[in-house]
Design a protein that fits this description.
- The structure is a single chain.
- The protein has a 7-stranded mixed β-sheet with strand order 3-2-1-4-5-7-6, sandwiched between helices.
- The protein contains 10 helices and 7 strands.
- Helix 2 links the parallel strand 1 and strand 2 (75-79).
- By secondary structure, the protein is of the alpha/beta class.
- The protein has a single domain, classed as Vaccinia Virus protein VP39 (Rossmann fold).
- The protein has helices at residues 42-46, 65-70, 82-93, 95-102, 109-116, 125-138, 167-177, 187-191, 224-240, 252-258, and strands at 56-58, 75-79, 180-184, 199-202, 243-249, 262-271, 279-288.
């Protein structure tokens, strides 16, 4: 790799093995960690999906764990985080380049800080994607946070932060991403493309007035105006003949979104402030205009 700081001559430059694919299906494990990921709810969320839907649409993609599990034939993935969308594009279009760049990166706080300090604009697209994946896998709790200058500033996650995705995982994810249109931008940008017969999964950042829920990309916040905007979109999606599923923290805001739709509660184990010793059981509401299969 030319742009990112590589290992010293004494280091062994090797790709670390990550979790493999889920057995018995066409899906794959996501190659990114993500704060607030719904990986533990995938089995519940999958009950709302059917192959009869024309397309799978997800405007708050994050790690896209449900997309990778379902492996839909056609999809639209969007996110306001343009670096995330570019990383998806590079994994899809230049998997070998991303793998080559990842193979020269190693775990460790000093190396993490050097990679974090590299200006992304100085890197080739595949190297930027590798940097994004590397920082995501080794940063604290899988957070993606930037300062007002747009600089990634999450600290190193320590020895228990996990491993880089394996070559097999990236290849499987690349294959599935070839079935998706990738759209950077606000959720409006994605939802305007929804048509009758589509299935839309919405997992927005939580805006809960009763407590602080940290799931922010940067200084801008998903606030109450966005919750109301999302509620209007649910009405529009229903009128268009599209199915939708929303997952949201059990709160007044979630009940505001729920309206007269089908609502089920799901318990999720969360880490307070990202520390395993502070695990708690939290409730999320699953809101849909279609009843799930039993």
């Amino acid at each position: 790799m030319t742009g990112l700081p590589g290992p010293t001559p004494a280091d062994v430059c090797a790709l670390e093995a990550g979790p493999g694919p889920q057995a018995g299906g066409a899906g794959a494990q996501p190659f990114l960690r993500w704060a607030g990921s719904k990986r533990k709810l995938v089995a519940r969320l999958s009950k709302y999906w059917s192959d009869r839907y024309a397309r799978y649409v997800e405007p708050f993609a994050g790690s896209a764990c449900l997309f990778f599990q379902l492996a839909p034939a056609r999809a639209i993935l969007g996110d306001i985080n343009q670096d995330l969308i570019e990383t998806f594009e590079q994994v899809r279009e230049n998997t070998s380049g991303v793998l080559s760049a990842l193979a020269c990166l190693r775990k460790g706080k000093a190396h993490f800080l050097r990679v974090r300090g590299v200006e992304p604009a100085t890197l080739a697209p595949a190297e930027r994607a590798a940097r994004f994946i590397y920082l995501n896998r080794y940063c604290f709790n899988g957070l993606h946070r930037t300062n007002r200058r747009g600089t990634f500033n999450v600290p190193y996650g320590g020895k228990r932060s996990g491993l880089l995705p394996s070559e097999r995982t990236l290849l499987q994810c690349a294959r599935l991403l070839k079935q998706a249109e990738l759209v950077p931008g606000d959720f409006d940008t994605v939802l305007t493309r929804v048509e009758s017969g589509d299935f839309v999964y919405l997992d927005p950042p939580f805006s809960v007035r009763a407590r602080r829920v940290f799931r922010e990309y940067g200084p801008s916040v998903f606030g109450q105006a966005d919750v109301l905007r999302l509620k209007r979109w649910l009405t529009l999606l229903d009128e268009r003949g599209a199915a939708f599923l929303v997952s949201y923290a059990d709160s007044a805001e979630a009940r505001q979104l729920a309206g007269e739709y089908y609502v089920r509660a799901a318990a999720v184990q969360r880490n307070i402030a990202g520390f395993a010793k502070n695990r708690v059981r939290a409730r999320e509401l699953l809101i849909s205009n279609r009843a799930p299969t039993p």
